[in-house]
Amino acid sequence: MRFRDKIILVVGGNSGIGLASAQAFAAEGAQVRLTGRDQTTIDTAVEGIAGARGYRADMADLDAMEAVIADMEAQDGRIDTLFVNAGVGGFAPFRDVTPEDWDHVHGVNLRGCVFAIQKALRLMGRGGSIVATGSIGGHAFVPGNTAYAAAKGGLYAALKVIAGELVSEGIRLNLVSPGPIETPLLHRNPGMSAADVDVMREAMIAAVPMKRMGRADEVARAVLFLASDDASFITAANLFVDGGTLELG
Q1: In the chain, fewer beta carbons within 10 Å around the N or the C end?
Q2: What is the arithmetic mean of pLDDT over 29-36?
Q3: How many domains does the chain have?
């Protein structure tokens, strides 16, 4: 019960890693607030988590995120832990990447994440913790990954600076970077057919030393560790949850 009575906001908590983490936070006593873009999955997530509250908000829409924070300010008065997990994929060969593709991926994965943290900070104080979802894609060569790699690599660089600035305020900020994980995001790549996704998935598995995809709950356990007092002497870290892909691949 590491999070008993803590107010937790999971941005992108309606599916995949975010939902697994929201459920795990609640199982350890937290009061969970979550966001997502799809009202149906938000409703389903909230129904399955006692005391949870959900918001329909696209992280790329800064006004929508401001409305979430304002409502939490009025109803909860604080945020103890922030997990910024929302993200979008965007695989395409470099020659086919358009400015629109680039802006879409960066608007969520980099710009949206950074400003979600900035907005939430006014409700956070000493002892607070922030975790954001990065990716091994920001550190490794993955064909067709130009826009996504730039966004996640940029996120790592930005959060390292932000973490340093927050040390004096007693707020920790860490990154969890998954490898190939079996989540709905894998199947949301515009322009890729189901057959294309299957080929990509098999290539991912082949590159993992453990020879399997990871599970959302395995990433959630890393998220909760970084968010909890078990990691009280850890900040600006980047924890890879990738089956050994980067170090052993």
Answers
A1: N
A2: 98
A3: 1
